[in-house]
Amino acid sequence: MNHGLDVLINRRELLQLMAAGATSGALPAVALAASGPATADAPAGAPAGSDALGADTPRIDGTLKVTGRAPYAIEHQVENLVHGVLVQSTIASGRVARMEASKARAAPGVLAVYTPGNAPRILPASVYTKGGAATEAFLPLQDDRVLWNGQHIAFVVAETLEQAMEAAHLIEVEYETSTAVLDAGDAQAPVVPVDALDVSWGDAQAAMQQADVKVHGVYTTPREYNLPIELHACIAAWQGDELTVWEPSQWVGGAGAVIAEWMGIPVEKVHIVSPFIGGGFGSKVSPHPHVAITCAAARALGRPVKTSLTRQQTFTGYGGRPRTHQELTLGARRDGTLVAIHHRSWNETAMEDIHQEPCNAVTPLMYAVPNFSSRHSLRRAHTVNPGWLRAPGETPSAYALETAMDELSYELGIDPLELRLKNYAEADPEAKVPWTTRQLKEAYAAGAQAFGWARRPPQPRSMREGRELIGWGMATGTYPVRRTPGQARITLCQDGRIEVRSAGVDLGTGTYTILSQTVADALNVPTGQIDVILGDTSLPLAPLAGGSQLANVLVGAVHKGALALRAELLRIAATDARSPLRHARAAELVLADGKVLSSRTPEMAMAFGALLRATRRDKVDIDADTFSEGAGPEERYQANRTFKKMVSPTAGGVSAHAWSAQFVEVRVDEDFGTVRVRRMVGAFDSGRVFNPRLARSQWMGGMIMGLGQALLEDGVFDPRTGRVVSASLADYLVAVNADVPAITTISVGVPDLKATALGGKAVGELGIVGVAAAISNAVYHATGKRVRDLPITMEKLV
Ligand code: MCN
Ligand code: MOS
Asked: Measured from the CA of 509, which atom of ligand 1 is nearest?
């Protein structure tokens, strides 16, 4: 056995070495200077070879995932289960005039056909902007109105999935159509100003008049979709007046609150189970309308109901990132100093629901500029309400700003990186407070060096290889450090195992792994001795795995708990009358390799479990949290169920953000206009990194999503009907392995103890921000063509 494992590891190492060699061999001649670490640097402090916090270790849930023992929500086995299938509208605006469901009701195995005429009642839930936890106010089948093409209008429940699908096809619908606003850019689209998002200082208009040089651009991004591998699908089961929902969720507490409101029952009666999730990227922050009708039908029928949206239905069953439109003007002096930024933007939202994609999330933050004005508004269209998608706001914002900065660099004849350094913000320009840490200069330097930026010829179209034009581009990214308090419980059991419990989830990010590393670190035990239990409302409360906050919140709570457990173990060893170590002096006792021992008599080392048995204890439980001293039940409830307790990045007179610099090489086929990204280098300041392998995987994942956003992703709708045309993975293109080049990630962060308990900053959302601009800038450098409408497809280049 052992022998086999050795061989495996050696083979893998060998393959990695070969892969590394092959990559550098394939690097283009123009890029010889490109080098740098292939993986993120391990931060100082991680003991070599250990699996403690900071160590580069694989995911502890990895084996479960690859052996099929990490089931999705709807793979859960439930007795007596029936199946729900949704029917969606085929018009964008109007009402359901008549629905002929008698054939469907008579079809074999059918238990119920719910229409706007007979659907069980669903009560409104408070949406998050007002402090609740839902992302949309729409309630399915509660009236006959149709507000977008692809809206849920009927729900069929049958004994088998096939019977439900068959019956769903037998439903005939007649509509009364009314005029739809399909294009949010149209003059008749209702406009919703969002005054709270206005940012201004100085006098941007006046200063712009005086500027030596101005660049002005209109930048647009299309609808983009989250497309997690695991579809949005749930099982709802009632036991009397209590409800259990197996629902893939980024936030079980929030999901429980929404579902309780929908069903009109106390929140304590709802149990959400979500231990493993097949990705969400923002779309699983809140349960969507199909969950409401599933829970309501399960109650009406007295049977557990399972519902899965089809892939096609996910395009209109909930929303992705909305279309955005930005007009941005930069004014500068000849020497490159910015004098004014003027920014107007809007995003598409639904007719009766609000989603904000604040396109000015990054604009006021990045550069030292004395005059600034930005205003963001929403424009309504007949569409499903858009939603969150990785770095909502920051992604389009950085795309426009960082493209405009590139345009300015050419206008001035200054290197794009130099221009950014020239306008470097030493403090938060909007809040006018110091950064907690800003290792952005370090990111520029490390990224530029690894990429070989110094060797970039300034002129567009100055590098080519055969038919391919080569371009180099760069851009900056940032993501705020958000914080909502959370809790964890640590239990030492008699058999020596340590259990960590929290309601927080692991989206595929690595929460399980970093929490076990946190305990391993504080207690000096191998991670193999630790079990982490996550994603269930019966566990200690936690905020959403969203806004890139969960890792820092939970690591903080678990670390506190582990230190308390350590103190408790030492106390028991030194003071319990039955402890074999009671004669040792407390100061001499240490924890090593899962044992308590006295440095003077190491031969008397006692395993943690043995100490509990000797002192007749079943277990030791420790509760810990990141709440401030004396936080009451109301505060804890709000943190668990609403957004009210999320601490702003500028709380406490400092400004906490993560930063990045992205460098990209593209090859553009001059005849066909096809763009291939050939290499990407991302340098990141995420503060202290808890696990370099997982952080690299997160940053890379973000960079790959950014590549898709820049070149492929395009949510197209039919301008005549509002039908989403690209509603499949064949029509809505995302980056796949063949699109993904060599990616280098570099960590330049330092522990930021003003930002979070253990000094980490945001990781999960940071990787995507700035990537689309870097690619777009590289395409300009290659071709001399500026494309300001994503994605950059071939027809825009030829
Ligand atoms: N990490 C670290 N050091 C830190 C902080 C984080 O090593 N200082 C690593 C950890 O492995 C941690 C991960 O990065 O588990 C993400 O941490 P964090 O940035 O706190 O993000 P959250 O845990 O809050 O996860 C949510 C975040 C968001 S908001 C989106 S959107 C997104 C993302 O994570 N969706 C994802 N990454 C995703 N990754 C996967 N596989 N699937 C998704 O749906
Ligand atoms: Mo991330 S879009 O905040 O879930």
From this structure: 15
